[in-house]
């Protein structure tokens, strides 16, 4: 499938397949292996305000109907959305996790993201290397598309990757960040996403419904069908509202009518907590949902009731 793109100047999938390459061995990596961070790259950057809600399964269909009436489905998505798989990097003491939990006004995280179905893929499969950060109430995301093997060279093997044009500044910033903070793969997340985009006066608005949110703390290969566990109850969907300035009134009114409240929920933090790396949060599974744990991604799990997806299909666990 075509990798979905957020509105704005962030997309650059066309360069992923062939333009970037690993630099020769011994190429300098910057200021003494990252004694300081580079100034942030501006290319492929955009700012957003974000709101997140947890939607119970019995309300998901009605919420979807209202979104469908006011927005259009993202043209990159299939009838029931698309898969999103992310590998997050952190320090051995989970610096990025604690920055989020403590609600620091400036915080960030590094991740490598793959769009599409889980399973074997070629080494040149395009993935997105992203730095997502929060500055006060504004969410900023900067990213570059790379073939998967070069993304691993950059983030795992700490090899300088050459990329054309202004993208090189961001690639070098990622390398400096990995060196300076000694980042390593920490947790993975995967889920099914239904994306909707605004039109007319709501241009720039994006709302997503994420179902079957799972994670793992090992087998950090974005191509592997490895074991996973639910990190948010399968009885809940995560609704994310992203707007350039503020969410339209009808969105907050809809949330109020359905009794939804804004939540501070991070899929990365949920995965960290679910796998015992940090204390568990209130959004984790109750004991009756233990059956959903430790199953391969995409395998059949008894976890009723699943959240229905667009077109009447179920977003519960399936083969």
UniProtKB/TrEMBL annotation:
Pfam annotation, one family: VTC
GO BP term (any one): polyphosphate biosynthetic process
CDD domains assigned: PolyPPase_VTC_like (cd07750)
Domain named VTC: residues: 47-273
Protein name: VTC domain protein
UniProt feature, compositional bias: Low complexity: 8-34
Organism whose genome encodes this protein: Nocardiopsis dassonvillei (strain ATCC 23218 / DSM 43111 / CIP 107115 / JCM 7437 / KCTC 9190 / NBRC 14626 / NCTC 10488 / NRRL B-5397 / IMRU 509)
Region called Disordered, residue ranges: 1-38, 296-319
């Amino acid at each position: 499938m075509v990798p979905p793109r957020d509105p704005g100047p962030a997309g650059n999938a066309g360069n992923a397949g062939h333009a970037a390459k690993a630099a020769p061995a011994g190429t300098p990596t910057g200021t003494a292996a990252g004694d300081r961070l580079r100034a942030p790259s501006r290319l492929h950057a955009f700012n957003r305000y974000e709101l997140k809600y947890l939607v119970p399964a019995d309300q998901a269909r009605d919420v979807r109907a209202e979104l469908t009436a006011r927005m259009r489905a993202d043209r990159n998505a299939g009838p029931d959305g698309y898969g999103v798989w992310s590998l997050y990097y952190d320090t051995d003491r989970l610096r990025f996790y604690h920055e989020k939990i403590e609600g620091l006004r400036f915080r960030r995280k590094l991740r490598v993201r793959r769009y599409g179905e889980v399973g074997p893929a070629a080494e040149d499969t395009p993935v997105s290397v992203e730095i997502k950060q929060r500055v006060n109430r504004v969410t900023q995301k900067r990213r570059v598309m790379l073939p998967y093997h070069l993304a691993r060279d950059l983030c795992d093997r700490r090899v300088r990757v050459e990329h054309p044009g202004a993208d090189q500044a961001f690639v070098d910033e990622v390398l400096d960040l990995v060196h300076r903070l000694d980042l390593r793969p920490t947790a993975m997340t995967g889920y099914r996403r239904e994306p909707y985009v605004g039109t007319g006066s709501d241009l720039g608005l994006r709302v997503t419904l994420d179902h079957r949110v799972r994670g793992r703390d090992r087998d950090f290969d974005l191509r592997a069908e490895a074991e996973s566990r639910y990190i948010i109850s399968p009885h809940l969907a995560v609704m994310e509202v992203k707007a350039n300035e503020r969410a339209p009134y009808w969105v907050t009114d809809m949330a109020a009518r359905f009794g939804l409240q804004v939540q501070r929920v991070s899929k990365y933090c949920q995965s960290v907590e679910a796998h015992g790396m940090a204390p568990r949060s209130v959004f984790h599974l109750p004991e009756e949902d233990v059956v959903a744990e430790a199953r391969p991604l995409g395998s059949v799990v008894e976890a009723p009731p699943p959240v229905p997806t667009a077109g009447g299909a179920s977003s519960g666990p399936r083969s």
